[in-house]
Amino acid sequence: MKLLPCIGILALALLFAVNAKAQNKITVKGVVKDNAQQTAMQGVTVSTAKPSKTIATTDANGAFTVTVDAGTELVFTHSGYAAIRKTFLSSNSSVTISLSVKDNTMQEVVVQGFRQKTKETATGSSTVVSGKALQDVPVSNVVELLQGKVAGLNVQNNSGSPGGMGTINLRGISSINISSDGFLTPTSPLFVIDGVPVDVNTNYEYGFQSGGAGINPLALIPPEDIEQMEVLRDAAATSVYGARAAYGVIIVTTRRGKSKVPIVQYSSNFFVKAPPRLREVLGGKEERLFRIRTILDYDTSAAAAQALINQTPFLSDSLNPFFNNSTNWQDYFFRTTYNQQHNVSIRGGDDRFNYKTNLNYYQENGIVQNTGFKRYSLSMNAQYAPTNQLRMLVSLSSSLGQKQNGSGVGLIQTGVASGGSSSSLLPSPSLFSENNSALAAARVTNNNKTANISSSLDLSYEPLKGLRIGNLLSYNFNSGTADRFTPSFLSNGSSESYSYNDRTYTLYNRSIINFTKTLYNLHNFNAFVFNEINSYGYRANAVRLDRTANDQITGPIGYGWGSSRGGTLNNIRETRQHGYGGSVSYNFDRKYVIDFNIRFDGLSTTGSKQPYSQNPSVSARWNFNREKWLEKITWLSYGSARASWGRNIKPTGTIFDTYGRYIVGLPYNNNPTVTIDYATVPNENFLPETQTSTNAGIELGLFNNALQLTYETYYRSIDNQIMKIKLANTSGFAELQTNAVSLVNYGMEWSATVRMFKQSKPFQWTLSVNGAFNREILTKLPDNLRQLRQEVKDNGSDVPVIYRIGRNAISNLIYHTQGVYASTSDVPVNMATGRRQQLGSGTGYYFQGGDPRWTDVNGDYIIDEKDLLPIGNPIPKVNGGILSQMQFKNFQLNINASYTLFRDLLNASLSKTMQNFGNPASVGSNGQPIQPGALVPIDQYNYWKPSGSDKGSGTVNAQYPNPFDFRRAGVMQPFRSNQTLFLEDGSYWKINNIVLAYNMDRKFISRFKMTSCRLTLTANNVFTFSNYSGPDPELVTQLGRDNSGGYPNARSYAVGLNVQF
């Protein structure tokens, strides 16, 4: 009986406990807004602090509802915003949470050495560019938009070809090798796209990192799908990437799903591209009379002048409709185009499962006739984490690029350049006109395609707390085709068909074991080991058919058996790379950080005497703002100093450079033979290129991060660069590929960001400035030579370069022009012979008034190649950018500018302009007529003019020689481009793009089920400020030669729409 009261009391106690538990549950309702714009935020994650668990996500109106225990601390988080923590003791149905954009630079997430870190614990040098800064301006290649955004990253858009890419160098040039068309061998950074390395330096064409189809791999990535790009500069940040990371690393991260509520986003741009300002020319009658007057004034006699005019039909036969023209050839080649871009993405999910699908279409018609680029892209990724220990990320992307190159190769349009500079007297394009370049630009079929499929599987598993095992497997396949057909009327009555195709594959696998441990919340340890395998293959085939049946049939056979041929090209590649290594990192209370990395790389292209190379690095960081003795300094938001040393390698050459090549030899007794290729001797000592760098930097955040400063200095040496040297014929071989060139780069970088107003103000203005100073010094040449001359073929100027130990890496060999001889009496006279200074030996041409005054370096009274001097430096010393971001309520105005300073350029365009006046009858060196060039007004130039009838004296202190003395111009060549007369300062300031945006009111667009709507007006390649007198200081090669024969940069204007549901 006594047991029953006890049971009753126990039951009553349990009932009260359950009731009390139920009463402790509370319901919290509210809305989350953007603190600056006061608009509702969709996709904000609501989670409990302890234990950390996601319990809700805000809807399209920013609303949320959760039921939790009283006293629970809730955490509100969203990408790019600072988290808000709030504890609720009772139910509340009108909570308003305001999230602010993150302003703590030290908490920014960066990727270094296969790991994600906060910038506070990263010891390497890196800069993050948000994807939002890359998505308002429609371009065919996202690299163009990096110009001026990262200190030390020099992007030169020296080709406006749609689907192509200019040059990109990180911390100076890394090679002095020159391609066949006068461009430096590209040394772009290694791109790592979602963990998969992509080397854009492989299979380059004309120095612009484009495959045989002329389409750069990065042109297949839509900027709208990029979450962020991170540029890694020093060896501490890039060392574990090993092979191919010697020139730096750029990590591209695409978007992921982060919202439980699926987000559908559509963006589009309609844009107009206009050619640059075309030059003014003398047309029709004005040109004819100018040419006739030149002949009458400067021919040897009146009779000779009359005879020359009579035998030049386009001058004498002015009544003939064929020559009586005033044709503006530039209008036939250049055009204004209308283009479009569309992008649709669907993404969503949570920490357990998220997904993203992106569909992109881009269409750009080039400003040169019959050129253009189209991109079709579809990418998908999904992440599945059934438990906290197991994670799987799958990605698949496919893209197709279509490119029309017209009559050129897309990147270089020499036919357009020469045709657009033709005389206005020639008739407009037809089958019978002298200038067929315009017809070729419009009628040559030149279609190119590149298809790419990339897939990856990233698995990781945590069997024990702090120990995670991962494996990344990826496969990339690329197929390129190029089909070109030239009709018979453009090829001397013989049609020509050319077909090209290539196949490239990359198989990559990386396995990693990572261990993380924290002791006493102060000592943080991290270590990992990895093993990496990379297999790469490339093969290209080409077929040429000559004289097809007619212009409507392009194959399959041609009747020109002698010139019709095909097969596999000799640039076949099969390479293997194996790397393994590890890293150890320690930080004490995020105050002192130190990292050690070591990597071993084996390459199939390396000689057998050194199969593996060692690549160590060590780096440290001190966050001194965490020191107790600085705690009272309230104006210091953060401060850190860091330093690093490390080494990286870059594979160079091919397996044939190391082990030689066998080719089909001459028949023996009518039987085929196979012999060794004696063009290049095998080199068993062949090594990869090695970069060793030292870096130090300081970072400061002041006045609650209103002012952020970064300064870095570096020194890096690039050793084992390849260069071919000629061999004596007694060796039996022609050349040897050596690792005998070394180069040093040193300099400094700086960046400053100023936030003008507090974040609570309705008007916001952020100004960012960055810059870099770099010097390059040549330190070693083959056979310990002190200097080496190299001839260069670059579309006509053919100015040689010289490599000289102890000075800048590349210098052009040119004549030093002191001015113009005002009269013949000013010409130096050889006292031993009594003869005036002469051009060359035995030419019989002596200098006179109106001729250029070139320095006689060796004092022999003869101007020849012995008087050439290494003058100028084509590599810029300073480059950087300025970014202004202003916002007032829903309006935004962003202006991005860049600058390049202290660079010497040879103005070949002006040289060619002046040369056209020296051949009024357009007669070639063989006495046969040639196509006449256009004449442009030159009154603005201070050129020499004779004093009356005396042709031996004239203008004093003239800058340019006499352009009209055509009888002497053929030999004297007073306007040759290899002289300081055309050496100019190539510095420029450029307004890259301007973006005006308006974010529509959230309440208004919610009626249409939209969560955001953004309208944009953009202008790209707005204006360039420069004292350079050529067409464009950016349209030049890295050798400092004016590349006006290339594809000009267009100016574009766009209207954009970005809608999110």
Automatic annotation (TrEMBL):
Residues 119-249 form the TonB-dependent receptor plug domain. Residues 1-22 form the signal peptide. Keywords: Cell outer membrane, Membrane, Signal, Transmembrane, Transmembrane beta strand, Transport. Its main location: membrane. Pfam families: CarbopepD_reg_2 (PF13715), Plug (PF07715). Transmembrane segments: none annotated. PROSITE patterns: TONB_DEPENDENT_REC_3 (PS52016). It is a multi-pass membrane protein. It is found in: Cell outer membrane. GO terms for cellular component: cell outer membrane. It comes from the Bacteria. Belongs to the TonB-dependent receptor family. NCBIfam families: OMP_RagA_SusC, SusC_RagA_signa. This is SusC/RagA family TonB-linked outer membrane protein. It comes from Lacibacter sediminis.
